Amino acid sequence: MKNIANIMKDTGISDYETFGKYMAKIDLNEITPSKRKNGKLILMTAITPTPAGEGKTTTAIGLAQAFRRLNLNSGIAIREPSLGPVFGVKGGATGGGKSTVEPSDKINLIFTGDFPAISAAHNLLSAMVNNHISHGNDLNIDPKNVVFPRAIDMDDRSLRSIIVGNGNKNNGTMMMDSFVITAASEIMAIMALSRNYEDLKERLGNILVGYTYHGKPVFARDINAQGAMSALLVDALKPNMVQSVEGTPAIIHTGPFGNIAHGTSSILGDILGLQLFDYLVTEAGFGSDLGFEKFMNIFTRISNILPDSVVIVATLRGLKYHGGSIDIDHENIDSIREGFKNLLRHVNIVRGFGIIPVVTINKHKNDTDSEIRLISELLEGNNIDYALSDVYSGGSEGGIELARKVIENIDKNGNKKIKYTYDIDSDPEKKITDIAKKIYGAANVIFSNDAKKDLVKIKKHGFSKFYVCMAKTQGSISDDPSKLNNPENFDVHINKINVNSGSQFIIPILGNIMTMPGLPKKPAAENVDIDSSGNIVGLN
């Protein structure tokens, strides 16, 4: 790896703070509209994720490296990994093979301390709410109607529902409470959307913490928490710079999940990247029904940044999985043909926004010539731009075909006008229904009694014009993870609707989605260790 000072010199950044030899934080003074160039933004999304993994982050990194191999000025802007998935099911989130961001072990763990700072700011607010209630409760906050949870960056199902204040009165007021994973914290979303310190502090002050005994909303500013929270987040708001394994600059900043948050890296990171690079590759969480939908309906509206090209990552193994194959490592033409329906659904979701996508087939060593020939025929038969990529094994060289296809695609999308899924001024129920029907293809949207009560509160307290950030399983286009491939004629169930007034999100909770995941029977953490020299091993 290059010393981070050399990366900074190459990009023209002078105001930064190093974290060891290979990581740095960039001062916000470096991010100004006057410095911004007209860089092109390439957004990576994917088919519905499968246990095999589709390699979206790997492809994003490999594509940026391929642009560099073509002597084009390119960079990467992706999310920070969460410790929950790192130690849970997915493992690390820094790419793979010859397309990684480095130092991957540091990035996958504590990195530059952003996640701990966000967790601390979140829990400071929780503590101040409980403290206010314990010391006289001048605001008349109803302990049974506190809606701001606590946060921890770990998968821990035992924290989904807890009791605090147990014991004598010195332990505070006994009340029900809960934890969310830090990537689902409202403060994570606020960090990803804030443009400067003033914006950050205003959004933090607008966080809804609960309601009074008379049903009046109470905000973080009412207990004067926003200043101290901002102080904890001063450094965390600064984007981080590292590099890929081939030395391509990589901005890694914030990490909201795509299934329970809005699923993309920070506005500041994208503004900086478009200022520095002619081609900036970023990604949205999970499939196009989740991160991509939220990128378009939420992120582009807040940031005024539109993608110049959208790439849908797919694997033949993933298509075989959706097509019903039990053994995805062996040739199965029929299951690819059937699973192609899932890929076509995602293509049509992207097309629905007025964008012509590029599909890339992320190659695997077990892919056969017959399978590749079939997928090529299917893509060509449906008039879909596509390219094969092999950035895992080949690094930048394996992404040349994709890079050239994306450059062609940028020209095709030059004059496209975005077609949003919903009007921001529409009734909240209609916005939710529009997403469920237009994006997921639901036949009906069923609101529970709790969700209907939540809608009444949303309208009463002036939250109706907020963006809709659906919390839904990533395992299916529907709200049921058992419905693979191309589900049809299904109902979407809205169990409740949370309000994040700092990020201006209405968050419908669909199906059995949890904002606090649990560890699997055999977590990835069991494979992580250090050697006698302190080198970290087992982070995949």
Index terms:
540 residues, alpha/beta, Rossmann fold, Domain 2, N(10)-formyltetrahydrofolate synthetase, Formyltetrahydrofolate synthetase, domain 3, 3 domains, four-stranded mixed beta sheet, globular
Structure description:
By secondary structure, this protein is of the alpha/beta class. It has three domains: 4-113 and 236-412, P-loop containing nucleotide triphosphate hydrolases (Rossmann fold, 3-Layer(aba) Sandwich); 114-233, Domain 2, N(10)-formyltetrahydrofolate synthetase; 429-510, Formyltetrahydrofolate synthetase, domain 3 (Roll), CATH 3.10.410. Helix content is 34%, strand content 20%. Helix 12 runs parallel beside helix 13 (369-381). The two termini are 19 Å apart.
How do you describe this structure in short?
The chain has 17 helices and 25 strands. It is an alpha/beta fold and 540 residues long. The model has no long low-confidence stretch (mean pLDDT 96).
Distance between the termini: 19 Å
Number of strands: 25
Give the C-level CATH assignment of the largest domain.
Alpha Beta
CATH architecture of the largest domain: 3-Layer(aba) Sandwich
Estimated helix fraction: 25-40%
Assembly state (oligomeric): single chain
In the predicted model, the low-confidence regions spanning at least 5 consecutive residues are none
Biggest sheet statistics: 12 strands, mixed
Number of helices: 17
Domain count:
3
CATH topology name of the largest domain, in short, is: Rossmann fold
Average predicted confidence as pLDDT: 96
